[in-house]
Amino acid sequence: MKKKDIKILLVDDEPDILEIVGYNLSNEGYQVITAENGIEGVKKAKKYKPQLIILDVMMPEMDGIEACEQIRKLPDLSNTIVTFLTARGEDYSQMAGFDAGADDYITKPIKPKVLVSKVKALLRRLKDDEKTDDILKIGNLIINREEYKIIIKGEELLLPRKEFELLSLLATKPNKVFKREEILDRVWGNEVIVGGRTIDVHIRKLREKIGDKKFKTIKGVGYKFVD
């Protein structure tokens, strides 16, 4: 996909952020759509179906957490990458964002060039997924990476992007222990900084949806998917 075809939705209640970040992303050749609050952001997400959404957390009308939750319920946006851009750096805020289905978390203030670099890294993951058409079948679980679809016990399950990628990684080699460092590198990429508890949060959500016995924690090492 060419840059001119990539749509980025920027949702923030600060005009300066919309102007500065929007300008730098537009200058890179991306289509930039802006919204000033969560309600407007969800509406524009439905209308334009962007490849990437950058959400502020603290906003009037509807905050970023609730907006992300609503966006993640839309099948048409299942492949959309969602990252938070916010001054809130506390752990609870990050965990709430990941629980809502966010893929990444970027703390501001951030230099425009650094933000553009992170956006490029996020979009490279989208390109990698477009090249992958593997279908994994493990017992009653089917992982269709081409259609970004999970089917378990005959029923389709919609997962947030990072949960899907984490499950897909672990399921490629059932019973293999994936070290935490490898998971962070292959699922989140080494260009994006995430908190140390990020993997734990996503594993917890997968256990709730796929089954607790399917994931085993190897203390001090990492995780594995149990066949």
How does this structure look, described?
By secondary structure, the chain is α/β, with parallel strands linked by helices. It has helices at about 15-25, 40-50, 65-70, 90-100, 110-130, 160-170, 180-190, 200-210; strands spanning about 5-10, 30-35, 50-55, 80-85, 105, 135-140, 140-145, 150, 155, 180, 215-220, 220-225. The protein has a 5-stranded parallel β-sheet, sandwiched between helices. A 4-stranded antiparallel β-sheet has the order 6-7-8-9, with helices on one face. A 3-stranded antiparallel β-sheet has the order 10-12-11. Strand 1 (about 5-10), helix 1 and strand 2 (about 30-35) form a beta-alpha-beta unit. Helix 1 crosses helix 5 (about 110-130), helix 2 (about 40-50) packs parallel to helix 3 (about 65-70) and helix 6 crosses helix 7 (about 180-190). The chain is globular. The relative contact order is 0.11. The mean pLDDT is about 85.
**Share of residues in helices:** 40-55%
Overall mean pLDDT score? 86
> Order of strands across the biggest sheet?
2-1-3-4-5
Question: How large is the count of helical segments?
Answer: 8
Give the helices and strands as they follow along the chain. EHEHEHEHEHEEEEHEHHEE
Structural class: alpha/beta
Poorly predicted runs are: none
Number of strands: 12
Give the overall form: globular
Largest sheet: 5 strands, parallel
Query: Alpha-carbon distance between the termini?
Result: 36 Å
